[in-house]
Design the sequence.
């Protein structure tokens, strides 16, 4: 029986529905105390001293500063530039300087207000323009964390031969992940046992890597365990290393278990958000409205420290030319430093930014050329045998053309477009329909997966279960369920025979982080191969025939364990053949494969209140084989809803580098009343190197909604909109500008 | 100080909590009923929703003194041996992903369902309007509520957790 392709029930669903699942704040250890962080009051300066004002009994409060760090004071990731605690230089207004711990949470809140930092302020910079202009140099010698250059063909000649040339500039704002469970951990650290952290996190081995230098501990003295995690979306990719280190330092000093849970305001203001971006695009077309040259300049705001900005920039850069073919491409991109808290991973990871710009620009070009936006795009789609923007040959047949057609059909795009144009006049509420065509590469970029060399294991236990051992976390997206389905199919057993082990670095191999839409496609494949390896052992020990039933398989496992010993299969990542990446020129097979999509939004814009409602949304995509239709649909719909927020509501208001609206009441994410019916269609084309034939889908749905929605608004209003979030205030300004 | 009397999920408790405690803290910390979650602590997310004398409230906004003598129902009070039809429907329709909003969503759905057995889509949207979910985009939650009692029996072998 094939389990892949069926909507088997969420494996940990029942315990979540009963309220039995244990998230980090639901766990209490004996003698546990609480920890808090005291942060810089200003964006940039030099720390001169700390004063503890009277009002609490300071002698009973545990205090940790940079001087208490037993190992090295940097958060290990890409660069070593970000300290756990400020030594002297302060670089953003949420920078941690002091940690406090005590058994009484309320007392800690009071104590926080009685800390005074003596700081000599320095001038700070808060946006990309100031950073680029080097108004102040705040990071190394040029404020640039990373830059990329891609040159393919001859862009100058391309423009020279172009009949039409159009230029545009597009801007996207920061976005808060806003998982409903804030960041939190519990830590125990001491010389004899080492350090153990339990937490709400996506990537146990990232935290593991970060804690080793902090304590100068060898790998075996650091243990990281994932608790049930209430959403991540990238927001629990790199940040848990920070809060884990802080809690561990407080435990080290106090010799007690320490729990640190951020409240909503601290989580929103201090943790990472999606990188703001500015993209300039110049596109040249020939007589037949075919792309001849594409010149893209893509800049993201990285905040005060490198964190993951280099990789976010990479993905944004490699997606910047979208699903179109242009013989000549030039891309320049950079991640710049500003005195704001570091921006970081958020579902889509740079691609939603650069694809927003491109899909807005394609719309603009179509309008200028008096073309139908769908036909114009179709005319420029990449085909088998052509190159993508990043220089990747499209080697297989791709279905983007039929995906686009399907989206037009199910949404009634062309008919509605005509109808809305005809009926909008003199209406107060104007209707519009818009689309976006895009792709998303799954897995790490370039040679990233080879470099990671992930390992997965599958093991038989003596109580008749099959365990899946990976470091990939269940954060709501369905890891447990799909791994069980794939393992069940590979071994011809039932998903209920499979136990997906809770990620714990003391027990699971490093199968890489839970990011980049890689869990199902890349790690799923590793799990299948590990299961095959296990089965091979049974075959070669003659305990199992090639043709076997579930009962025979489970019986053979038991016998093997009894007669031979441990029964475990393992696999390690190997790149699919013919994937070639040139790091120097930054070109080649950027991703093993892509998922392809067309999204359509139908909107109503109220020209009196300047509010926009998404009335209906269609998401059509080719994603390889769908492993679990209910879960896959849930991924797409959830991503689209976040994309609607990104497009219309979710505005981070900055004040001197600080988030000024760090509350759920004034940072507005979509509610049940804002999200329309979202119709999801999958075209399936099994991918040979993906688990169960899948391609990654986690991030894809964030790329399309914002441009589709803004394109729909443009159709409704007949004006050009180039920035998100397109809040009512911004729309009002735009409409006034256009005297509407 | 006079003790507080709370009836939670049908069980009576006599407690002397810190007088400024919120109902949420007493449930989670004093009674160890951690199914009810805290997402914001200011009445915006609904993760802390419980029933208080038959009305849906955000327990992070209820001073525990106000709950004295009252009946409280939390997510732990829904299922007995078997999941309730609402929970069963959430499981079948994909109404829970990360699960952190789920206890609150279930309580909101429960409150809606008590007064309205056949809510329209709009009534469901309004009934759950105070509960935020960042994972699902709500569509499958709405479907879960629409299909209460209508989903096929699940394919699981053992339906109950003993
Ligand atoms: S925690 Fe009570 S409404 Fe958010
Ligand atoms: S399921 Fe994760 S917030 Fe609702």
Sequence:
């Amino acid at each position: 029986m094939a389990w892949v392709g069926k909507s088997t029930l969420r494996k940990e669903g029942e315990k979540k529905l009963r309220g039995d699942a244990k998230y980090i704040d639901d766990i209490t250890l004996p003698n546990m105390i609480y920890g808090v962080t005291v942060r810089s009051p200003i964006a940039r300066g030099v720390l001169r001293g700390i004063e503890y004002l009277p009002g609490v009994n300071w002698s009973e409060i545990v205090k940790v500063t940079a001087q208490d760090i037993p190992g090295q004071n940097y958060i290990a990731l890409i660069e070593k530039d970000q300290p756990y605690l400020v030594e002297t230089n302060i670089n953003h207004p949420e920078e941690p300087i002091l940690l406090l711990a005590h058994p009484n949470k309320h007392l800690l809140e009071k104590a926080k207000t009685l800390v005074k930092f003596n700081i000599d302020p320095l001038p700070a910079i808060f946006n990309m323009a100031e950073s680029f202009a080097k108004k102040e140099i705040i990071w190394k010698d040029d404020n640039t964390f990373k830059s990329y250059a891609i040159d393919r063909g001859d862009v100058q000649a391309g423009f020279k031969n172009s009949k039409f040339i159009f230029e545009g500039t597009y801007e996207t704002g920061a976005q808060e992940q806003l998982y409903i469970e804030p960041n939190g951990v519990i830590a125990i650290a001491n010389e004899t046992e080492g350090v153990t952290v339990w937490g709400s996190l996506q990537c146990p081995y990232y935290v593991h890597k970060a804690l080793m230098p902090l304590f100068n501990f060898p790998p075996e003295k650091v243990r990281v365990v994932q608790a049930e995690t209430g959403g991540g979306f990238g927001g629990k990719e790199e940040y848990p290393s920070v809060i884990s280190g802080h809690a561990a330092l407080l435990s080290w000093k106090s010799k007690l278990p320490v729990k640190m849970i951020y409240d909503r305001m601290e989580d929103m203001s201090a943790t990472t958000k999606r990188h703001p971006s500015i993209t300039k695009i110049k596109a040249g077309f020939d007589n037949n409205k075919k792309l001849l040259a594409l010149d893209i300049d893509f800049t993201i705001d990285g905040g005060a420290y490198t964190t993951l900005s280099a990789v976010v920039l990479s993905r944004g850069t490699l997606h910047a030319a979208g699903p179109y073919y242009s013989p000549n491409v030039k891309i320049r991109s950079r991640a710049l430093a500003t005195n704001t808290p570091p921006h970081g991973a958020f579902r889509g990871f740079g691609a939603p930014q650069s694809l927003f710009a491109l899909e807005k620009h394609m719309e603009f070009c179509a309008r200028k050329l008096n073309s139908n936006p769908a036909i114009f795009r179709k005319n420029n789609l990449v085909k088998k045998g052509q190159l993508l923007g990043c220089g990747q040959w499209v080697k297989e047949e791709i279905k983007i053309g039929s995906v686009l057609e399907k989206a037009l059909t199910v949404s009634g795009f062309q008919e509605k477009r005509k109808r809305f144009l005809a009926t909008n006049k003199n209406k107060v509420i104007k209707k519009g329909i818009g689309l976006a065509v895009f792709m998303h590469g799954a897995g790490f970029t370039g040679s990233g997966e080879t470099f990671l060399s992930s390992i997965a294991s599958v093991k038989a236990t003596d109580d008749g279960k099959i365990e899946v051992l990976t470091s990939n976390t269940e954060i709501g997206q369905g890891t447990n369920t799909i791994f069980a389905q794939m393992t069940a199919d590979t071994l011809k057993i039932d998903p209920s025979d499979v136990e997906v082990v809770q990620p714990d670095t003391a027990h699971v191999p490093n199968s890489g982080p839970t990011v980049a839409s890689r869990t199902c496609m890349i790690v799923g494949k590793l799990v299948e191969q590990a299961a095959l390896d296990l089965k091979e052992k049974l075959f070669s020990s003659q305990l199992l025939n090639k043709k076997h039933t579930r009962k025979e398989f489970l019986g053979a496992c038991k016998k093997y364990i009894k007669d031979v010993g441990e029964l475990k299969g393992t696999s390690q990542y190997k790149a699919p053949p013919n994937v070639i990446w040139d790091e120097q020129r930054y070109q080649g097979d950027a991703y093993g494969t892509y998922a392809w999509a067309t999204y359509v939004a139908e909107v109503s814009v109220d020209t009196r209140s300047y509010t926009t409602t998404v009335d209906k949304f269609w998401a059509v995509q080719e994603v390889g084989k769908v492993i679990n239709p209910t879960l896959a649909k849930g991924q797409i719909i959830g991503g689209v809803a976040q994309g609607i927020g990104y497009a219309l509501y979710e505005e981070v208001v900055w004040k001197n580098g600080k988030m000024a609206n760090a509350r759920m009441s004034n940072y507005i994410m979509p509610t049940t009343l804002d999200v329309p019916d979202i119709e999801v269609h999958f075209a399936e084309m099994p991918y040979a190197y993906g688990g169960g034939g899948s391609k990654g889908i986690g991030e894809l749905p964030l790329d399309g909604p914002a441009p589709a929605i803004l394109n729909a608004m443009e159709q409704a209003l007949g004006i050009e909109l180039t920035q998100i979030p397109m809040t009512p205030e911004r729309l009002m300004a735009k409409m006034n500008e256009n005297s509407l | 100080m006079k003790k507080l009397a709370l009836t939670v999920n049908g069980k009576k408790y006599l407690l002397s909590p810190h007088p400024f405690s919120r109902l949420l803290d007493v449930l989670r910390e004093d009674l160890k009923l951690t199914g009810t979650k805290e997402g914001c602590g200011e009445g915006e997310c609904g993760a802390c929703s419980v029933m208080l004398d038959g009305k849906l409230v955000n327990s992070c906004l209820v001073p525990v003194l106000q709950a004295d003598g009252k009946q409280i129902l939390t997510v732990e009070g829904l299922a007995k041996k078997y999941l309730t039809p609402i929970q069963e429907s959430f499981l079948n329709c994909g109404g829970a992903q990360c699960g952190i909003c789920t206890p609150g969503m279930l309580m909101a759905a429960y409150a809606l369902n008590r007064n309205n057995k056949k809510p329209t889509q709009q009534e469901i949207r309004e009934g759950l309007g105070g509960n935020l979910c960042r994972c699902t985009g709500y569509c499958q939650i709405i479907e879960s509520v629409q299909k209460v009692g209508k989903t096929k029996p699940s394919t699981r072998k053992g339906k109950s957790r003993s």
